[in-house]
């Protein structure tokens, strides 16, 4: 009964380092999303996927890449981390029926120094 | 442009008092509407949603919201709040004219319930 699981929960990176955030869902959802949450700005969509093997850009995609090689996993990559990418990252998934209710992971708190 | 606005960044209220958190959106197309709650250091949990039908929707923890199409609003209400309702509340909208069925979020309202 895990739902949406994000790994890791916390990470500190130095400027220029790379990392990958993993999102896994066990609800057989088609749609998966990566958001970032910053104070006073709500959640903003980075990238999303409408099915295995597909990805698309959201509102703030620059500096990030994603992959959806398996239906249950959605990876978010930072190739060269910048302090502006310090944020809390949330993964979400939803079913195929109009992308209605989204289920969220617990978040990854990333600090880039 | 399509957008979601939560005008109140913080709402202080005393325990057992009523509360209304405001949400407006900008769009001329059909929408799905949601309210999510986020407790400290946690993910987002769905409170309630409007997809179609009755414009008054009831959610968990005694919350309800009313969809007003003419005013493009979806305000969240609770008649009597508890200390445990202290959290951040997000209004979110899916705009149905696009193939991207992703949620667009407002900036959030922090509800602070005081004893």
Protein described:
- The complex is a heterodimer of chains A (113) and B (115).
- With 113 residues, chain A is an all-beta fold.
- In chain A, 0% of the residues lie in helices and 51% in strands.
- Chain A has strands spanning 4-7, 10-13, 19-25, 31-38, 42-49, 56-57, 65-67, 73-78, 87-94, 102-104, 108-112.
- In chain A, strands 2, 4, 5, 6, 9, 10 and 11 form a seven-stranded mixed sheet that branches. A four-stranded antiparallel sheet of chain A has the order 1-3-8-7, with no helix packed on it.
- Chain A is globular.
- The model of chain A has no long low-confidence stretch (mean pLDDT 92).
- Chain B is an all-beta fold and 115 residues long.
- Helix content of chain B is 0%, strand content 52%.
- Chain B has no helices and twelve strands.
- In chain B, the strands form three sheets. In chain B, strands 2, 5, 6, 10, 11 and 12 form a six-stranded mixed sheet that branches. A four-stranded antiparallel sheet of chain B has the order 3-9-8-7, with no helix packed on it. Chain B has a two-stranded antiparallel ribbon with strand order 1-4.
- In chain B, strand 8 and strand 9 (73-78) form a beta hairpin.
- Chain B is globular and about 45 Å long.
- The interface between A and B is medium-sized, with 26 and 27 residues.
Number of strands of chain B: 12
How far is the first residue's CA from the last residue's CA of chain B? 41 Å
Helix content of chain A: under 10%
Our count of helices of chain A gives 0
Keywords, separated by commas or semicolons:
heterodimer; A: 113 residues; mainly beta; 7-stranded mixed sheet; B: 115 residues; 6-stranded mixed sheet; 4-stranded antiparallel sheet
């Amino acid at each position: 009964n895990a739902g949406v699981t994000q790994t890791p929960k916390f990470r500190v990176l130095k400027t220029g380092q790379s990392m990958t955030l993993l999102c896994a869902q066990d609800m057989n959802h088609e749609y998966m999303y990566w958001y970032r949450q910053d104070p006073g700005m709500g959640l903003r969509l980075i990238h999303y996927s409408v099915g295995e093997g597909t990805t698309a850009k959201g509102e703030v995609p620059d500096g990030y890449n994603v992959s959806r090689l398996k239906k249950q996993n959605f990876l978010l990559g930072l190739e060269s981390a910048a302090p502006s990418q310090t944020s809390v990252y949330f993964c979400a998934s939803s079913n195929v029926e109009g992308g209605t209710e989204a289920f969220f992971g617990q978040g990854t708190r990333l600090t880039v120094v | 442009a399509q957008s979601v606005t939560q005008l109140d960044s913080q709402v202080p209220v005393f325990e057992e008092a009523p509360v209304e958190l405001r949400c407006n959106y900008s769009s001329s197309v059909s929408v799905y509407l949601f309210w999510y709650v986020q407790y400290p250091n946690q993910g987002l949990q769905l409170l309630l949603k409007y997809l179609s039908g009755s414009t008054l929707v009831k959610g968990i923890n005694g919350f309800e919201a009313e969809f007003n199409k003419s005013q493009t609003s979806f305000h969240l209400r609770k008649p009597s709040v508890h200390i445990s309702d202290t959290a951040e509340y997000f209004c979110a909208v899916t705009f149905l004219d696009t193939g991207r069925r992703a949620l667009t979020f407002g900036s959030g309202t922090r509800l602070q319930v005081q004893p």
